[in-house]
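Box S2. Input/output pair 1.
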Amino acid sequence: MSKERRALVGFIAVACVLVVAALWIGNWLAAGGLSHAVAKPGQIVFISDRDGTADLWTMDADGSNATKLVTQMGNERETTFASTGQWVFYTCEFEQNEIQIGRVRPNGRASGKLLSTQGAQTHISTSPKLPIVSYISNSHVFVCTTDGQGAEKVLPSHVDEDFDTQGIALEDVPPLRKYSDAKLSSREGWIAAKSQGFGTESGNVSAGERAYISTGHDTLTVTLLDTDKQPVIADECSFAWSPDGSTLALATVGAKSKSFLALYAPKAEVAEGKMALFLQSRKAVVIGSPTLFGFRNPTWSPRAKLIAFEMIKRDKDGGRQSNGIWVVPVASGPPKQIVKGNASQPNWSPNGKFILYEDGADLMRVTVATGETKNLTGGQGTNRDASWSPILK
């Protein structure tokens, strides 16, 4: 081979390497570059319209360094971090006013839709330990990876199969479920979900909700029972898994029986060649009185020793009124009020020192040990849907 030919081949080889390197670097930068550790300890992501439209923002745990993370044409809604802190997920009106899931690095890079599929996608949930996301679409529950791959329907809207429930009530009516929320456990496959349209004592069929626990992937789904061993049917159901995924806290408002905050410990076993789902325990932590409508939005402390929740009371006209944020020991003991007034959406910090909550248009923080409160947003617009970064250090 001549000297000139060898030089040409060498040039082409080097050019190819540079092109490949440029493409790799471009893709790496588009994916966020050095962003694996961008999520700060205690960083908060939230929705704020302080600039005129509802956009995604971040701030430090004390409310400082508020920074707009991403701007879309439509209003952003909902927020949650991936278990690693490397992604922030949110929902937004991306196309034709259809709400879908978006994701962005905590440094604002690599923003865009999570899935390439069409259709509304709401009520996102991430597992505390697994790289998966769940969401509701067309009344079904789906899961996919945090990279938007492997989207799979895990809770179709149909009645339960006839399997051995060991005394747990089978599905009865209506025959079609309309799932409106679901929460992933840190245990693979476990999901808590609720369906609408079951009716309540007031006859408001569209508002009635029923709660379930499922092993996912269309295997076993059972209706949760209340303290009177009847299927949970309430005006509202809200729930949260313990950090290790072993126990579900369920809060109800306006149930047929008394409203309650209770704990459920599910267990799946194979008996006589047939899978069965058991609830090892059903413990009522708090039961409502005639003056209370119920309980809402439970959240576990990181060490699973306390549960914070909203309490709802009855006002003079018989309506519902917030009665602040309360904390109750998981083992035993009476609930204790730590925030008074119109407080909602409690969210425990990963280090266990604070509880984040909404108060009107502001995001507030209360120090659990002292009860000291701090306004994190200072009246700058309407602020809501906040989530803590899972990064501790």
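Box S3. Input/output pair 2.
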Amino acid sequence: MNKVLLVIASVFLLSGCSPELTKEAAQVRSHNQVNKLLDGCKKLGQVTDDYEVKTMLNLQENKTQARNNLKQKAYDNFYADNIVILSSRYVEGGFGEKAMIHGRAVAYRCDRD
């Protein structure tokens, strides 16, 4: 019985450490540059996010979460379905400061069926 409780508790703890992605943000496609997939799409505006790096995640997981946050902001602000990442910059924390990832993207809506 104790082993079962330990396994269940471990699953809950580990799931809380992985990058989160909401249903809306999951539908937003990200691109590293403007490409032909965005032909005919409407450029909506710029989104920025300052993501505080979580020590329980590795750097790649933190970068994924920072990108997910940009997707979520693009959806929340513009109902965007695509973003182009302009920059994503990791800044190491100094004395008493947290490490951050500063992200900037442009939101697009393509409305394709």
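Caption for Box S3: The domain at 2-109 is CATH 3.30.110.70 (Translation Initiation Factor IF3). The chain has one domain: 2-109.
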